[in-house]
Amino acid sequence: MNIKLYNKISNKGLSRLDKSLYTCSEDVENPDGILVRSAKLHDIEFNKELKAIVRAGAGVNNIPIDRCSEAGIVVFNTPGANANAVKELVFAGMLLSARPVFDAMSWVETLNGDEDVATLVEKEKSKFVGNEIRGKKIGIIGLGAIGIKVANLALHFGMEVYGYDPYISIDAAWQLSRKVHYAKTLDELYEKCDYISIHVPLNGKTKNMINDDAIAKMKDNVCILNFARGGLVDEDAVCTALDEGRMKNYVCDFPNGNILHKKGVICIPHLGASTPESEDNCAIMAADQLSDFLENGNILNSINLPNLTLDRSGEARITCFHKNTPNMIAQISQTISGEGINIENLINKSKDEYAYTMVDVNSKSLDAVIAKLDAVDDILKVTQL
Ligand SMILES: NC(=O)C1=CN([C@@H]2O[C@H](COP(=O)(O)OP(=O)(O)OC[C@H]3O[C@@H](n4cnc5c(N)ncnc54)[C@H](O)[C@@H]3O)[C@@H](O)[C@H]2O)C=CC1
Ligand SMILES: O=C(O)C(=O)COP(=O)(O)O
């Protein structure tokens, strides 16, 4: 099978793909699978053999999910695999806002060593006094893999922590310290907090969620930390608030022309997940999920389909990615049994508009049945494994 790489993927992950089964490179034609990080796939035309796209990372806003679903392409990500790296950089950003380290270092760079540096430093250091973060209030929007880690670590820094996430998962809630205050509304969080850190996905509902209205409700001198996606924040609103002295800093992992060189903006070139540890974690998860799907049809951490695994039985497996419409399971099983093939095991699960069915059968001669299933309305992709 051909796996096309749209970004550099750690060898720790790629080496888990059996070389006798997979060819992985940036140049393969007609891929069965794609491994990608932040490369934008919106304008890519997908070949009909493509069965899966795995995002080695969290955010999937670079992938046309709806178009993939309609073409029966399963999209995966690797939840939590890079969360620790992002958490650590969020605190680096917060400390760079609290203490004017950059300005101070730039000043030190201007010294030429001819003067009495030690005396000069002691004389001038009062120009670079900053604040401590202990005792300050931080609001965290989005309590998923990263938000939880930021919230729990902020408590260790002695901060008062407010969390907002109306969709928090049960697993996430278990991991969150009970010392984190539950913000029932965003307004409550905006009104109270000195630091606001955003950790939600970018989608139609969250785009520009930090806008003029939101910033107007925040404390003067607030610092906004955005290690999630640039599109979550209305940059014009941020620039106005900085110009008017209503905001201390905007710390952002997604620089662009609107905020470059702007006083009060601290830009980092999308380094949140750029550690070998995270790159390895993401690549390993991505490779394992991709191979288990391509070889066995099992699904773990998909965006457009539910998790579904089934131990292998029978002679072969048929998988169907289909619409979540009435009579699909009946049509699939009738088509198979109509060819005189016995079903050993069948499993089906749906997620919103789409569903997935795996069928283990007692025959390997499946060309006719695959062709018939392919022709069923609302079946988007059929595979024999
Ligand atoms: N700077 C970087 O390199 C990285 C950036 N990211 C970004 O961070 C985002 C979050 O990553 P994870 O925590 O791993 O994802 P996650 O999926 O574990 O958590 C996202 C959380 O946001 C919550 N949420 C969704 N909509 C919300 C809303 N309107 N208001 C409040 N909460 C909402 C969800 O319930 C979920 O708990 C990713 O989608 C990605 O865009 C992720 C990894 C690296
Ligand atoms: O995982 C994410 O959402 C990220 O933003 C990390 O992006 P990257 O894999 O470093 O290009």
From TrEMBL:
EC assignment: 1.1.1.399, 1.1.1.95
UniProt-recorded Gene Ontology molecular function terms: phosphoglycerate dehydrogenase activity
Keyword Oxidoreductase: yes
Catalysed reactions listed for this entry: (R)-2-hydroxyglutarate + NAD(+) = 2-oxoglutarate + NADH + H(+); (2R)-3-phosphoglycerate + NAD(+) = 3-phosphooxypyruvate + NADH + H(+)
CDD domains assigned to the protein according to its UniProt record, in alphabetical order: PGDH_like_3
Gene3D superfamilies, per database record: 3.30.70.260, NAD(P)-binding Rossmann-like Domain
Enzyme class name: oxidoreductase
Pfam families, per the entry: 2-Hacid_dh (PF00389), 2-Hacid_dh_C (PF02826), ACT_4 (PF13291)
Stored SUPFAM superfamilies: ACT-like, Formate/glycerate dehydrogenase catalytic domain-like, NAD(P)-binding Rossmann-fold domains
Keyword NAD recorded: yes
This protein's name: D-3-phosphoglycerate dehydrogenase
Residue ranges of domain ACT in the record: 317-385
Protein family (similarity comment): Belongs to the D-isomer specific 2-hydroxyacid dehydrogenase family.
Gene source species: Breznakia pachnodae
InterPro entries linked: ACT-like_dom_sf, ACT_dom, D-isomer_2_OHA_DH_cat_dom, D-isomer_DH_CS, D-isomer_DH_CS1, D-isomer_DH_NAD-bd, NAD(P)-bd_dom_sf
Keywords: NAD, Oxidoreductase
Protein's pathway: Amino-acid biosynthesis; L-serine biosynthesis; L-serine from 3-phospho-D-glycerate: step 1/3
Function in brief: Catalyzes the reversible oxidation of 3-phospho-D-glycerate to 3-phosphonooxypyruvate, the first step of the phosphorylated L-serine biosynthesis pathway. Also catalyzes the reversible oxidation of 2-hydroxyglutarate to 2-oxoglutarate.
